[in-house]
Amino acid sequence: MDDGILGISTGGLSPFKGTGELKGTLISLEGCEGSGKSTQAEMLKGYLEERGKTVTLVREPGGTDAGERIREILLDPQTGELAPIAEALLFAAARAQLVRDVIRPALREGNIVVADRYTDSSLAYQGVARGCGLEAVKNLNDWATGDLEPNLTVFLDMSVKDGLARVRGEDRIEQEELAFHENVRYAYSMLIRIFSYRMVVVDARGGPEDVHDRVISHISRMVV
Ligand code: TYD
User: Fold this and answer.
1) Could you point out which of 79, 92, 144, 221 has its C-alpha 20 to 30 Å from the C-alpha of 136?
2) Residue 152: which domain range?
3) Is residue 185 domain-resident?
4) Which ligand 1 atom is the nearest neighbour of the CA of 130?
5) Does residue 62 belong to any structural domain of this protein?
């Protein structure tokens, strides 16, 4: 017997695979090129582990098999110019995979996830600097992540020129001209205002230890 279209069972399928209760904490690190995010992410992980926390460190794009393959397309200069929307979709695709397979399971376990870049990178780089539009990229990423927002985002701030002087400029996006990277920083300054309830700014100048101390001054308030 046919129950009609509304009688068809979907089998309770969710693209996010059992969202469940997320007990953990998601901390993202953001910044322009050469701002020291990866070093600070490692140091933060060490700090939290010393205090008995279980920490999952992820970097974007990547962190899953599919994500690493997408990363190659995105960062290899041989890819050449990508349509900005294609670029935004690829970053979001890698993120969707990472959120479903790594971040959500870790948060469900009650772990702390430290993300070396997350959705704010897409908002700044693709939404503003590439001109895709903040709203479109925000909607895309809300879909990709199932609305998973960080509990805290630390923006590591330094001048674009100082940051670029620290990197080798090997990947496709690092190789963009100075004006592109200045737009990225400008975009972050907007995001810091829009998402003031979760974003903090840390001066990223000076040695790694000094910057680490500044980072943990924000962390220790929320992670006991
Ligand atoms: P990566 O080698 O991880 O550099 P970094 O140490 O600066 O994080 O390369 C990531 C590059 O991809 C970087 O130039 C920023 C860019 N990016 C985006 O444009 N959008 C995004 O959503 C993400 C995650 C990164």
Assistant:
1) 79
2) 25-223
3) yes
4) 19
5) yes
Q: Give the domain CATH number at 154.
A: 3.40.50.300
- Token pair recorded at residue 54: 């279980």
The whole-number average pLDDT for the span 181-203 is 97
Q: Which of 125, 138, 145 to mutate to test the pocket of ligand 1 (most atoms within 8 A of CB)?
A: 125
Residue 9 above 90 pLDDT?
Answer: no
**E-strand stretches of the chain:** 25-31, 55-59, 112-116, 152-157, 199-203
Which of 99, 130, 173, 180 has most ligand 1 atoms within 8 Å of its beta carbon, as the pocket-test mutant?
173
| Cβ neighbours for 212, distance < 8 A, ≥ 6 positions apart | 40, 43, 44, 47
Residue 221 has pLDDT above 90, yes or no: no
According to the model, what pLDDT value does residue 224 have? 63
Per-residue pLDDT, 101: 97
